[in-house]
């Protein structure tokens, strides 16, 4: 009798774990198909014609700091625009879709968040 209860409880545990696992897996699925960048004409968001890389960020954002460090380590010139200190940068960031920082423009690509693979691929295209 006790063994049957233990088997039943164990089976419910397995079913619960399978349900939670599949729910988590399904929630991650859209991210697998989402592109690391968005292509478009972002010329209006570059402060000058010489700029090839623009970072919209804040000074407290750790991913912005990682992006800055990546650019500096790889000797990549970039324009650093703080959306909290510059009303123009804040407006441009909002027009680009906002939704967090960093937002990086490299050529005709917009990259949201810190993603070394997307940064490297975009830098190779310019």
Structural notes for this entry:
- It contains 4 helices and 5 strands, in the order H-E-E-H-E-H-E-E-H.
- It has 126 residues and is an alpha+beta fold.
- It has a 5-stranded mixed β-sheet, sandwiched between helices.
- The radius of gyration is 22 Å and the shape is elongated.
- Strand 4 and strand 5 (109-112) form a beta hairpin.
- The chain has helices at residues 2-33, 62-73, 87-95, 116-125; strands spanning 38-39, 53-57, 79-82, 103-106, 109-112.
Structural class: alpha+beta
The largest sheet is: 5 strands, mixed
* Discrete helix count: 4
Tell the overall outline: elongated
Strand residue content: 15-25%
Question: Kindly state the mean pLDDT as a whole number?
Answer: 89
Count of β-strands: 5
**What spatial order of strands do you see in the largest sheet?**
1-5-4-2-3
Low-pLDDT ranges: none
Question: What are the salient characteristics of this protein?
Answer:
single chain; 126 residues; five-stranded mixed beta sheet
Concise account of the structure shown:
With 126 residues, the chain is α+β, with helices and mostly antiparallel strands.
Please give the structural blueprint:
Elements: H1 2-33, E1 38-39, E2 53-57, H2 62-73, E3 79-82, H3 87-95, E4 103-106, E5 109-112, H4 116-125
Parallel strand pairs: 2-3
Antiparallel strand pairs: 1-5, 2-4, 4-5
């Amino acid at each position: 009798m006790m063994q049957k209860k233990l088997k039943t409880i164990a089976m419910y545990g397995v079913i619960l774990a399978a349900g939670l696992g599949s729910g988590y897996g399904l929630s991650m699925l859209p991210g697998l198909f989402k592109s690391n960048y968005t292509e478009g004409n972002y010329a209006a968001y570059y402060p000058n014609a010489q700029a090839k890389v623009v970072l919209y960020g804040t000074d407290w954002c750790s991913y912005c700091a990682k992006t800055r460090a990546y650019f500096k380590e790889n000797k990549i010139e970039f324009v650093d625009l703080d959306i909290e200190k510059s009303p123009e940068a804040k407006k441009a960031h909002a027009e680009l879709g906002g939704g967090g920082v960093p937002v990086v423009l490299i050529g005709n690509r917009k990259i949201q968040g810190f993603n070394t693979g997307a940064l490297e691929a975009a830098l190779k295209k310019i």
